[in-house]
Amino acid sequence: MLKKLCSALLLAGVMIVGAAAAGSVFPAYRTDIDGVTRAGYLDEEGQTVLPYAYAQAGEFAACGMAAVENDRWETAVIDRTGKLVIPYTAAPVSVDFSDTMIAYRYADHSVYYTLDGKQVGSYAGAVGFFENDLLLCRSAASNRCFYVHPNGERAFPGEFADAGVFSGGRALVRSTDGAYLAIDAQGNTLYTLESSITPSYMTIFGEDTIVLSNGTNQALYSLSRSEYLTDFLYHTISEFEDGVAMVRQVNRWGLMDTTGRLLTEPTYYYLSYMGEGLYAARSEDGSAAAVDANGNIAYRTPSYVGGFNELRYGLSWHGMEDGTLVFFRKNGGYFASLKQAENPTLLSENVVRVTQDGTIKYINLSTGHTLSAQPTTFDLGEGLSAHTVHYEKFMGYQADGTEHGWNVDFPEIRGLPDESVQKSINQAIRAFFLEGPSVSAEYEALEGGYGAAVEGSVLVVWANCISGKGEGASVWNNCLAFDLRTGTPYQTADLFTGDYMDTIKALLPSEHPIYLYSFPRMSETGVTWYYNEYESSVRRAYTESYLLSFEQLDAVLDRTGACWQALHTPYTPAVNTVAGFRDVKTSHWAAEYIQTVADRSLMHGANGLFRPDDAITTAEVCATVARSRKLSIPETLMPGLDHTQWYAGEVSAVYAAGLLEGLTENFRPDAVMTRADAMQLFANLLTAQGAVLPDTAAAEPLLAPFSDAGQIPGPRRAAAALCIQKGLISGLSDSTLQPQGSFTRAAFAKLLTMI
Fold first, then answer.
1. Residues 6+ away with beta carbon under 8 Å from 452
2. Residues 549 and 647 grouped into a single domain
3. Are 562 and 588 in the same domain?
4. Which of 207, 238, 242, 211 is closest to 225 using CA atoms?
5. Using one digit for the tens of pLDDT, what is the confidence trace for 101-146?
6. Which of 533, 567, 601 is the last residue of a domain?
7. Both 556 and 511 in a single domain?
8. Are 477 and 463 spatial neighbours (Cβ–Cβ below 8 Å)?
9. Nearest residue to 579 via CA among 565, 569, 593, 568
10. pTM > 0.85: yes or no
11. How does pLDDT run across 265-274, given as a tens digit for each residue?
């Protein structure tokens, strides 16, 4: 049966790859109303390059490959075109990439492939990749180390108590009698260390440098010269990265090369390697900086909260006390900032994934455009929708420093004509998710989302979460069901008569005891039972699902019961709607405006829906402007526009009328229009009607009352001021303009009635 990974795991990014390559294609995740998270690949314009067809997707590595997973818990490797380089096979613990090979890491062995997908071999206890045609392996039985060739044969006789990978034709090993040796690729001893010398790492750095420990302090030692490069002056010498190590004297940190030369004196209170030759440093005055190996400051800030963790694609970030994330470049200098954002992951030279307003977003930092965002509202049909509510509960920190707690989404149902029924259903849903899977689970991490469906006149809502972390974590996919007409809660047992479990037991596979099948979920076609497997050291938590149709369950069904009747009676709400739109009731705050724009044929819906709470796109805005101004479609369409799209004519008409002045650069009609862009378009409309843009002296007082007016780019400030002056824009309740925010279709309908 299908094994579905829970969405919480998918979003956790458990696919492990080697160093990611710079590029403009990155993985993105989207959770649909069925509660299943799927992954695809986007480019920096927000266009879908590879479809949302994967259960999980990793970033493309420097070699141009990425690991993906399907919903059968199998892993494959693809190239940038989506072609399978390695077909789907049993999921490993991780997938690693080098410049020449791919490694599937299982609990007790690794399988290696060439970059064109040919299997090199399977090796028990393998560590790292082949170097000098030699692969380090460790026997699980004896815990001894040895080296093998690609054909699996031992490279040379003998085993070692410990060993490091080869580098430059040499490796550091410890013999079974305790002696430390440096050997060549034939197993010959090049150097034997004195018995009093103990390496800190089984690695040879640079030409022939190793790090030694005397039990308290550390020093550098040259193998070929058999002499110390430094005294035991340092409490810590880190492993070398690109020929540079971090060193600590007492409580101060500095940087050193493989010859023992200090590149930066130990003066920093804190130092960590960020990648790409930069280090995060904290000074005595409390400031944080990114410095290179010679101590040159690439970026510095006197005040920060978190960040400076790593450098990816030439970028890093830090947080500020007001909730702002500041992004800076490797070569120094401010790059961009995001207000009220958290959990950033850099995905390319321009794109970051963040959580903002409780929503996961993919944002192009160069343009400020949101390329993709997890939907916060789902259409359930018949005017009903599920609006996502985010809930967090902080419970402390784990040993690795990560936060421990709850991070859960659950639905709030909207659109029911009987507000009391809607309130009771939403109260039950909220209590269900905030109580969690069990009393004991209240003290464990909980992460994930939900699914929802309307089955006949029954609303079914289920959890799609992971309870706990690491080994022992389990899937939580329990569910609720309600009669949409009365709010009556239903249990699966309400569908059956008498003792039905013997029938269920006979229909479910006998490989698991019946009591392990949990959380049955009803639908119009049958009832699905679930077997949830715990996470172990070799697999993630997963679910096996078994749908038993009503034909199979016929003998024990109660076809006269209220639950059966509701499940097989289509939901048809009696509700007063606006302009025939099922999702706009007469009580909606924008009902008057939506009726007006519909009567004037300025805005249209689709499939009986207006989608009042959806953000309006640039194409939709241009279409309404063309209709409101009765613009003729020009013979020559707008350059660079996809002329096959529905909006091509109306967008071209607005362009030909000169109303896209200031908006044509990086013009993306399918993208959500920002409030700054909308204000520019409104200003163009107003000036076309004879209005005059205010000069700087007049504009600034108009913008001054808004706390975020500084975010409006210089060329747009006069346009924003004109919109404020004419009463089109009054700002939000928190005295902000939110220039990078958007208008809903309902809010835009109101604006249309004002211009």
1. 33, 35, 378, 380, 386, 411, 413, 459, 460, 461, 462
2. no
3. no
4. 207
5. 999 999 899 999 999 999 999 999 999 999 989 999 999 999 999 9
6. 567
7. yes
8. yes
9. 593
10. no
11. 999 999 999 9
